[in-house]
Design a protein that fits this description.
The chain is mainly alpha-helical. The protein contains 7 helices and no strands.
Length: about 140
């Protein structure tokens, strides 16, 4: 079996973006249409390919998809795409004190204050009182 030819520079560039999802590339394609990094001819080609890709009757061929991805990467920049995909959702701030950090007597005092303020009912207070007294 013959060896495959060595990768060309353009093929290596496309392998960079091989792990990006097509949806991410399509989304970035909207931004790429207005990029000043591309020439007018490249922008026109990108717009043509994007219109063709939106029509289900005219799907992009493998070569056209590669060209579209290459134009998007050139316009947006691979570093921006990777940063956009690698960002993590923000975690909510942790509470300053965990409930378990407060001893049972203090929790009982808080429950009594909540009952006195009318936030919880007497039945709820009794249930909490029994649970907190068991922990003492």
């Amino acid at each position: 079996m013959p060896k495959p030819p060595p990768p060309r520079e353009s093929r290596a560039r496309l392998s960079w973006i091989g792990n990006l999802s097509w949806a991410a590339i399509e989304t970035a394609g909207g931004w790429a249409e207005t990029s000043e990094r591309l020439s007018q001819a490249d922008r026109d080609e990108l717009i043509r390919l994007r219109k063709k890709a939106r029509n289900r009757r005219t799907p992009l061929s493998r070569g056209e998809r590669a060209k579209y991805a290459s134009l998007v990467v050139r316009a947006v920049g691979i570093e921006r795409l990777r940063k956009w995909l690698d960002r993590q959702p923000e975690r909510p701030p942790e509470s300053p004190r965990e409930i378990r950090d407060i001893d049972a007597a203090e929790r009982l005092e808080r429950a009594a204050k909540l009952r006195d303020d009318g936030v919880i009912s007497d039945e709820d207070f009794l249930m909490l009182k029994v649970r907190y007294l068991e922990e003492l």
